[in-house]
Design brief:
globular; two-stranded antiparallel ribbon; single chain; Alpha-Beta Plaits; 2 domains; 9 helices; 12 strands
Length: 279
C-alpha cells in the first residue's frame, strides 16, 4: 500500500518546520508521493484540504509546537475542519521546549481519530524554547540535534516500510497520554477553557509603524490601525514581541518573569525522554 503523504505544520519559531522538512525529505528519498503545507500560508489551506478529501489513501503528518502543554489553536482548527476520512492514517508530531510536552500529542491524536484517522505513529521532539530566543543560552539550545533528527528519519523509514509490507500497526491513543495522571488531568481540564493570551502593551512613542509585527505574525492577527491592533486569531506566539526592532510591543507580564517560571518548570518536571517516537 502506498498512501499519499501530506505534511502539515504551524511553526512560528522554525523548529516544527525543521521536523516537518525532515519528514518530507526522507519520504521523498524513498519515492513516496508527498505534499506539504505551512499553515501560515493560510490562502493555500482550502485547496490543500480539498486535495486531502479527494485522495483515496491519505497519511497525514501533522505538527504543532507545544504551547502551555497543548497543541496550538491553528493546528487543532485545521484538524477540526477536515472532512470525515476513510482509508486515512495520521502521525501527529510536536516540538517542545523542555518545560513539559503536556498532552499535545494525545489531544491531536484524539481529534484525528474523531475524524476517522488511524494513528500509526507519533513523535515529540526536543527543541529550543521559543520564549527564550533573546538569551545567549536558551533552554533546549542546539535541539533538535543530530540524535533527535536521526529518530525522525528512523521513524519515517519504519512507517514507510510498514505501509509497503501492509504491516501497519495502530497506536493506542492512551500511549500518547504519557504524563502523570495528575498532570494529564490538569492539562485536559485546561483544554475546555479559552486559550490564554498574555495582554500586550504598545508603546506608541517607540512604534515606528514599520509593519514587521504584521508581517511576522503567522496567523495575520495584527493590523496597523495606526498602531498594532490584535484580532482574536492571536495565539500568543510572541513573534511580534521578538521581532519588533523598537521593542514597542511588550507583554503585560515581564519576559524575565515568564522565563524564570519556565526554568522552574523545567527543573520541577524533568520530563524524559526528551525526544521520543511512538510506533
Ligand atoms: C507561548 C509559548 C508557550 C510555550 N509553552 C511551552 C510548554 O508548555 N512546554 C514546553 O516544553 N515548551 C513550550 N514552549 C516552547 C515551544 O514548544 C518550542 O520552542 C517549540 O519548538 C516552538 O515551535 P516552533 O519553533 O515550531 O515555533 C512555548 C513557547 C511559546 C512561544
Amino acid at each position: 500500500m502506498r498512501p499519499k503523504f501530506f505534511v502539515v505544520f504551524m511553526s512560528p519559531n522554525g523548529s516544527t518546520r525543521l521536523v516537518a522538512d525532515l519528514f518530507m525529505q526522507q519520504l521523498s528519498r524513498s519515492d513516496q508521493q508527498v505534499a506539504s503545507l505551512n499553515l501560515a500560508d493560510h490562502l493555500l489551506v482550502p485547496d490543500f484540504m480539498e486535495e486531502i478529501a479527494d485522495t483515496e489513501n491519505v497519511c497525514l503528518l501533522i505538527g504543532s509546537p507545544v504551547y502551555r502543554d497543548m497543541a496550538v489553536p491553528p493546528v487543532m482548527d485545521f484538524i477540526h475542519k477536515l472532512p470525515k476520512m476513510k482509508n486515512a492514517w495520521a502521525i501527529p508530531f510536536v516540538t517542545w521546549g523542555l518545560a513539559c510536552s503536556g498532552i499535545a500529542l494525545w489531544q491531536m491524536g484524539k481529534a484525528l481519530i474523531e475524524k476517522g484517522f488511524r494513528i500509526v505513529g507519533a513523535a515529540k521532539v526536543a527543541s529550543v524554547h521559543a520564549m527564550m530566543r533573546n538569551l545567549d543560552h536558551p533552554i533546549g539550545e542546539d535541539h533538535p540535534d543530530k540524535d533527535d533528527q536521526k529518530q525522525i528519519l528512523q521513524l519515517t523509514d519504519l512507517l514507510v516500510s510498514r505501509f509497503e509490507t501492509n504491516e501497519i500497526k495502530d497506536l493506542d491513543l492512551e500511549t500518547l497520554d504519557y504524563q502523570s495522571p495528575e498532570m494529564s488531568e490538569e492539562c485536559k481540564g485546561r483544554m475546555e477553557k479559552a486559550w490564554m493570551i498574555v495582554p500586550k502593551k504598545i508603546d506608541t512613542n517607540a512604534c515606528s509603524q514599520c509593519g514587521l509585527c504584521e508581517e511576522e505574525c503567522p496567523v495575520q492577527a495584527i493590523a496597523l490601525d495606526p498602531y498594532p491592533k490584535f484580532t482574536d486569531s492571536c495565539f500568543d506566539c510572541f513573534n511580534c514581541i521578538q521581532f519588533c526592532p523598537e521593542n514597542a510591543i511588550q507583554p503585560a507580564k515581564s519576559l524575565v518573569e515568564i522565563q524564570a517560571n519556565i526554568v522552574k518548570r523545567v527543573n520541577l518536571i524533568q520530563e524524559r525522554p526528551l525526544t521520543q517516537s511512538f510506533v
